[in-house]
Amino acid sequence: MKKAIVCGAGGFIGSHLVKKLKKEGFWVRGVDLKYPEFGETEADQFIIGDLREIEICKLVIDQPFDELYQLAGEVGGAGYVFTGENDAEIMHNSALINLNIVDLASKIGVKKLFYSSSACIYPQYNQLDPKNPNCAESTAYPALPDSEYGWEKLFSERIYQTYARTYQINIKIARFHNIFGEEGTYIGGREKAPAALCRKIALVNDGGVIDIWGDGKQTRSFLYIDECLEGVRKLMDSDFDGPVNIGSEEMVSIDELAFKIAHIAGKKISINHIEGPMGVRGRNSDNTLIYKKLNWRPSTFLEYGLNKTFFWINNMVKLNG
User: Fold this and answer.
1) Active site residues
2) What single DSSP character describes residue 282?
3) Which of 38, 77, 145, 239 has the fewest other C-beta atoms within 10 Å?
């Protein structure tokens, strides 16, 4: 039986990844500061610990596991990443976790390691036009991410690539583009756009008004969690190292996203545009490379994931008020 570690197993993507690995027959050790928020973990073993502490890392990475998935770090939507209030925490905590994990994994002899980077690494100057952003993997340099979160992700990519070259570790890197789905954070300030809009629309009456930051014309693409994990596993089973985009090419404006969710909810809404953090004007996954290297692209439309996510959040709102 293959053994895997999932760092960040208490988070949204990590908890779903544990489930997928278990279905594939892995023995899984999860680690996080907390258990999954919305259900029991399916990990065979779950360690509560802070990966900023090297002694915790030594406890977690104590043998040459077949696969290690590094998803732990500071995460959040625009309300957390773009205010400037959390920049030092984001840079320090995530970088320290990555330095600890890659160094120890190289010394212990972990056979294969996955690092979850982000589309936030792409230069701001290529994302000024909401209708024509350029997020091909080759455009990452000259670097100019729009946030410290993006700079830290890019720095950590370099850490992993350096260790891969120096110590011949098999390391895979993917740049995630707005992953969403059930059992993700939908309230509290760190939620991302799909979850935040699902919550707002669940709470409003038919014909009601919801607030959206900015003019609503900023564009993004959003990838459903099941599709994300399929791409990750494809990458891990391949001979390609990345970095590679894992995202959808179905770009929508934030206003369009809200109206899609309202349609699923069976409600008519109006939008009140207010000041707030927005990030870049346009961002969309370029899947040319991943299709060329892995023969993979998302197989479902945005509405499929939005439907599942909305009704899950709608039920959570009803239960919790």
Assistant:
1) 149
2) B
3) 239
